[in-house]
């Protein structure tokens, strides 16, 4: 069965496209109704974001449709772009240069190559074990002890978040789930859809009825109303598409719930890093959204948990 | 072809966000002067220019570096149309004569349509700070008072390719082209250089 014959996958794609069309229409109506004041800027920002969503969704669909190769290429590129944004705001010194070169040009390609050859054993420990040791050695050999601990730890964290965690998305394609052969692309779809939808819905609920701030010192936009509304709605959508996953409906609901909570935590953690480093966004690559890291912050922390839960309950 | 490919690669590696505070497409001759911290500096400024203007923007570079090996020689003469000058110890009468001759040649090589890309610090700074300017920029501006002086602030390139490294780490960088620097004929050399340096450093604060 190729992916184009997978009707469940096609249904998911059709669903996402419908959602985008609805979003674009809503954005258009909003822009005609609200023509002045502060609301105007918000609406413009929303429409820019929706346009960016079209591009991101189409890239993702093309990657999924072209199979393992496409998915690995897309997410390795995302990793490189995210790592670039992370390292740019990291407190590096000249002594980190060679170690960082390894991170970009050896470690990242290797991590994704391991997914390609389906070597799960090494994939899961390469960065947390071997690379963390290697990077510390390489940096110490450079001989610069100024803020050594801070620098090595920051670089290691950059690799964990931008490369290791992100690589868990295409790694879902490695899982061998009984009675779900060749269905893994849908698992990837489920993960990305639920997490990103949860982000969007938290934003929408927060903008419409948000009052009580959760962590004003980290992110003034995150409210309890937005969080609960987003989690409930995204979990409902995740439950509604249980048929595309190897999960029973109740299980799909629990998985979606975990994903939305992890996604929220990811957004919070990555915002805390931004405040610490004194930047508003990680980059400016995606219009209206900021950098790549601003868009995938929730995905980073949801992907590894989703992978391991699925692996634990549905393989062997 | 090679020039376009190099410009694309340079933009990819440097991840440069380009900001203009003067008209990028103006049909005037300019002297772009930037802070110098990396071997990438000139190519990043060059690739940030509108494609149409790139072939008329000529870097001023050290002959000793750009005449080493066939590839560098080819790039310098055929792709970048660099104005290669002698670098040497300053101070001696001989060096002063060489410097004067180099400045004269820069002014001539501008002709009636070329712009120049220069780095008035003369050498790469190793700590990311903007060093003191040598007097070359002052004399050049006196020889070509018709050319617009445009300060160009480069940020982060010293982290992407620091002094002494040959492989780049592709972080994000920023290129800020400032507004034209206005000078007057009665400024002396020190006033001029201090003003030019301040105009360059000021661009760092613009976000």
Give an account of the 3D structure.
The complex is a heterodimer of chains A (316) and B (207). Chain A has helices at 7-33, 37-65, 67-89, 97-116, 120-141, 148-171, 184-209, 224-240, 249-277, 292-314, and strands at 213-215, 219-223. By secondary structure, chain A is mostly helical. In chain B, helix 1 packs across helix 2 (41-48) and helix 6 packs across helix 7 (136-143). With 207 residues, chain B is an alpha/beta fold. Classes of the chains: A mainly alpha (316), B alpha/beta (207). The interface between A and B is medium-sized, with 14 and 12 residues.
Please outline what is shown here.
The complex is a heterodimer of chains A (316) and B (207). With 316 residues, chain A is an all-alpha fold.
Low-confidence stretches of chain A: none
Structural class of chain A: mainly alpha
Q: Got a strand count of chain A?
A: 2
Please identify the oligomeric state: heterodimer
Strand order within the widest beta sheet of chain A: 1-2
Backbone CA Rg of chain A: 20 Å
Mean pLDDT of chain B: 91
- Tell me the overall shape of chain B: globular
Return the average pLDDT of chain A rounded to an integer: 94
Helix content of chain A: over 70%
The helix/strand order of chain A is HHHHHHHEEHHH
The major beta sheet of chain A can be summarized as: 2 strands, antiparallel
| Low-pLDDT stretches of chain B | none
Order of helices and strands of chain B: HEEHHEHHEHEHEHEH
The class by helix and strand makeup of chain B works out as alpha/beta
**Helical stretch tally of chain A:** 10
The shape of chain A is globular
List keywords for this structure.
heterodimer; A: 316 residues; mainly alpha; two-stranded antiparallel ribbon; 10 helices; 3% strand; globular; B: 207 residues; alpha/beta; 7-stranded mixed β-sheet; 9 helices; 7 strands; 40% helix; 17% strand
